[in-house]
Amino acid sequence: MSDKSMADIQREVDAYISQFKEGYFSPLSMLARMTEEIGELAREVNHHFGEKPKKKDEADNSIEMELGDILFIVVCFANSLGIDLAEAHDRVMHKFNTRDADRWTRKNVEP
Fold it and tell me: pTM here?
């Protein structure tokens, strides 16, 4: 298991993309790519947990790899817009911990 921080991941992806003249795709293209990747994840989830088995000649992808593809495009998207994903995560968690503090039933925690 990797101990990379989100900042490490964002730097690693940026170093990878920066070696190519084309650089990051436009936001609209990245949104389209993300949509494609989410569709591929949906297909894998359906194969594993749904009623639709894979065809015999269908590629053997995994939920893990599809989630990795989605993470990569999310990081590309954030990098291209100058968004710090760790900061974005902190802001979203604050929102959930305040706005939704009493929304869900908490588990009983035994001392």
Answer: 0.85
